[in-house]
Amino acid sequence: MSGNGETLIGKAVTMAELVAYQEGAVVSRTLIDKKVGTLTLFSFAAGQGLSEHTAPYDAFVQVIDGAAEVIIDGAAQRLTAGQFIIMPANRPHAVRAVQRFKMLLVMIRE
Description:
There is one protein chain. The protein is mainly β. Helices cover about 0% and strands about 55% of the residues. Strands 1, 2, 3, 4, 5, 6 and 7 form a seven-stranded antiparallel β-sheet that branches.
């Protein structure tokens, strides 16, 4: 575990409450950081995002609050709370806050 993630073990929690919104910023909180993968919560202020990049592993993104635009290989899709998308390895992708939103990013390494 990373940070104070150990305090979460064995407790029922509400994901959306684990990371706060911050005006004009992207905030992240790592819940698990292991050799095999990571779980990271993010909050994005409206208009904020992650610029286009690639990753060597598939990435699972679940929106837990608000709405986001996820762009994969130039194709944009809008996601709202409760929806998820899998971003394939080695393909360019980006994330943008249509409105403020929170997401869980799960990265499993091979």
